[in-house]
Design brief:
Distance between the termini: 85 Å
Helix content: over 70%
Radius of gyration: 24 Å
CATH superfamily: PDCD5, DNA-binding domain
Mean pLDDT: 90
Shape: elongated
Structural class: mainly alpha
Largest sheet: none
Low-confidence stretches: none
Strand content: under 5%
CATH topology: Helicase, Ruva Protein, domain 3
Order of helices and strands: HHHH
Length: about 110
C-alpha cells in the first residue's frame, strides 16, 4: 500500500511538472506571436504593398536575409530615420547590397 501511495504521489508531481511546462510553452508561443504581429504591423506602415510582397518572396528563398532586413528596417523606423514609405525600388537597392551575388554556372559540352 505504501508503494502505491508513493507511486501516486510521483505521478501527481510528474503531471504538475508537465502542466507547468505546457503553460510556459504556451506563454512563450503567445509572446512570440505578439512580437511577430508587431513586426508585421510596423512593416505594413513603412513598406508599400509591392515591397512587402518582395520581402515575402525573399523570405521563401533566404529566410535569414529577410529576417535581417526586416529587423534593420524596423530599427530604422523606430529610431525615426525612415522619412517616407519604402517602395519596391528602394527595397531592391537595399537587397542588392545584402543578398549574395549570383554565381553564373557555365556548362560547356564537347
Amino acid at each position: 500500500m505504501e508503494d502505491e501511495e508513493e507511486l501516486e504521489e510521483l505521478r501527481k508531481k510528474k503531471l504538475e511538472e508537465l502542466q507547468i511546462r505546457q503553460q510556459q510553452q504556451m506563454a512563450e508561443e503567445a509572446q512570440a506571436a505578439q512580437i511577430e504581429a508587431q513586426k508585421q504591423s510596423i512593416l505594413r506602415q513603412i513598406l508599400t504593398p509591392e515591397a512587402r510582397e518582395r520581402l515575402g518572396r525573399i523570405q521563401l528563398a533566404y529566410p535569414d536575409v529577410a529576417e535581417n532586413v526586416s529587423n534593420q528596417l524596423i530599427m530604422l523606423a523606430q529610431s525615426g530615420r525612415v522619412q517616407s514609405v519604402i517602395d519596391d525600388n528602394t527595397l531592391r537597392q537595399i537587397l542588392r547590397k545584402i543578398l549574395p551575388k549570383k554565381r553564373e554556372i557555365k556548362i560547356e559540352r564537347r
